[in-house]
Write a structure and sequence with these properties.
elongated, mainly alpha, Four Helix Bundle (Hemerythrin (Met), subunit A), 0% strand
């Protein structure tokens, strides 16, 4: 074997090693792309489910709103000072909840506070759509990670909803 043959053989071996490394890298890239595709499909499926559940909740809320006044889910009628006091204390629960909203609040903490407020209002005799809407927000906030902060747009929407809930309770006065 001549020196040229040895040199060519060494270069071919080096090229072969580089081709094997490139092949391994391409196989890893294909695996990563496959995982990304799986995640995108799962996200798409989850998005569809969330949309369907939102539609179902809107339908339920519409049914509750259209329920007859004498039904079990209707707002309590105010006939005495005691009833007015109960509504005032219910409004105070919502005001406390509104005061606790702030930028950077952890979603799981706020979900717990809304659930507590809903239970408190339910114990005070408030029923119907306010409790359903509060439960909906608890479910929305549980979609966040355990230690994620709430997005500013969701925080704004929640504040708007709390004001609407306060108005709904005030209309019962």
């Amino acid at each position: 074997m001549s020196e040229e043959d040895t040199y060519l053989r060494a270069k071919l071996t080096e090229i072969n090693g580089n081709i094997e490394r490139l092949t391994d890298m391409l196989n890893r890239m294909i695996d990563v792309i496959g995982k990304i595709t799986e995640v995108q499909e799962a996200t798409s499926d989850l998005s569809i489910r969330v949309s369907d559940n939102s539609k179902k909740l809107d339908t339920i809320i519409a049914r509750i709103k259209s329920a007859p006044v004498g039904g079990a889910a209707s707002a309590p009628t105010v006939t005495s000072l005691e009833d007015k006091g109960a509504i005032s204390s219910s409004a105070a629960v919502l005001e406390n909840l509104d005061d606790e909203l702030r930028e950077g609040i952890i979603a799981s903490d706020l979900a717990g506070k809304i659930a507590e407020s809903a239970n408190s209002l339910e114990e005070k005799g408030v029923g119907g759509s306010v409790i359903v809407k509060m439960s909906r927000w608890v479910r929305i906030l549980k979609t966040y990670g355990r230690v994620d902060t709430i997005s500013p747009t969701d925080l704004t929407k929640l504040r708007t909803d709390i004001r609407a809930w306060q108005k709904e309770l005030a209309s019962g006065r």
